[in-house]
Amino acid sequence: GAGVSQSPRYKVAKRGQDVALRCDPISGHVSLFWYQQALGQGPEFLTYFQNEAQLDKSGLPSDRFFAERPEGSVSTLKIQRTQQEDSAVYLCASSFDRTRQPQHFGDGTRLSIL
Amino acid sequence: QKEVEQDPGPLSVPEGAIVSLNCTYSNSAFQYFMWYRQYSRKGPELLMYTYSSGNKEDGRFTAQVDKSSKYISLFIRDSQPSDSATYLCAINTGGFKTIFGAGTRLFVKA
Predict the structure, then answer these.
(1) Distance in angstroms between the alpha carbons of the first and the last residue of chain B
(2) Distance from chain centroid for Cα A87
(3) How far apart are CA B10 and CA A54, in angstroms?
(4) pLDDT tens for residues B55-77?
(5) Cβ B90–A104 below 8 Å, yes or no?
(6) Do A40 and B8 touch (CB under 8 A)?
(7) Which pLDDT score is estimated for A98?
(8) Do A23 and A32 meet the contact criterion of CB atoms below 8 Å apart?
(9) Which residues in chain B have Cβ-Cβ distances shorter than 8 Å to A103?
(10) Which of A29, A77, B12, B53 has its CA 20 to 30 A from that of A47?
């Protein structure tokens, strides 16, 4: 496709369940980012991949959060033992090369933890 | 103090007005300056991207960067109801992490 695609668009889970969020970046884009956006706030950086290598995971809130990009294209963000504070929109962005700018965003996955 | 400060608004203007949106930042190492537009339930869409101080114009949009004051602005001329959205400034040092402002909600009234 022409843009960054994320699935599912909406996810509702019970507290304690594990969830997996998928990102399909723009074809050929080297850099991939995950962000968390709380209501009324700007996106906050979670992690960065250059191809399949996770070069920065400093923004992941806890060890319950895990991201992978095994073949350097599709990426998955996994949250284990979800908590209510994990409720947010999770955005994926990709950029063409290692300069990492500019970033092109998907429409996000809206995660609600009950 | 946050690294990037942005007035959340809301900002309400009549159609045709000139809109001025602003952010301040604290880290002089920032090199890349972006403005994104975000409609409700959509992802941020890149509007303007600049590497240096000065002005950059694209249609009705002008981005301005003043590194000496650590101040960036986005001007929208002849504003339209379709410009109603949240505008996010975003700044990067050239590293992996981009810092976003909280966003300013803009309403353009017909």
Answers:
(1) 37
(2) 13
(3) 37
(4) 999 999 999 999 999 999 999 99
(5) no
(6) yes
(7) 66
(8) yes
(9) 34, 46, 98
(10) B53
